[in-house]
Write a structure and sequence with these properties.
The protein is α+β, with helices and mostly antiparallel strands. The protein is built from three helices and four strands. Helix content is about 40%, strand content about 20%. α1 links the parallel β1 and β2. It is globular, with a radius of gyration of 12 Å.
Length: about 80
């Protein structure tokens, strides 16, 4: 199962970004999704950095297995999950 989150619509609203990221991570854990695709977009790279900082938080990092940056599309991240 794969979930997808496109941040284009809320790129300039910090609290909404954090809420959306929390929601998609929690949904992935609940539904035992193996992959979450997050699209911060290309832009200046600030939104992607914010997403990576969010994912690097200790309590969030414990929920997923690894983060993959798409080598073909700079504006896309994949979060891989391993469920027990």
């Amino acid at each position: 199962m794969k979930l997808k989150l496109d941040l284009h619509d809320i790129f300039n609203r910090g609290q909404d970004i954090d809420r959306a990221l929390n929601a998609i991570i929690n949904e992935a854990v609940q539904k035992k999704a193996t992959l979450v695709e997050i699209i911060p977009g290309k832009g200046s790279g600030q939104l992607k950095k914010r997403v990576l900082r969010f994912l690097d938080q200790k309590e969030i990092k414990a929920l997923y297995h690894r983060v993959e940056k798409d080598s073909k599309n700079f504006g896309r991240l994949f979060i891989h999950f391993r469920h027990k």
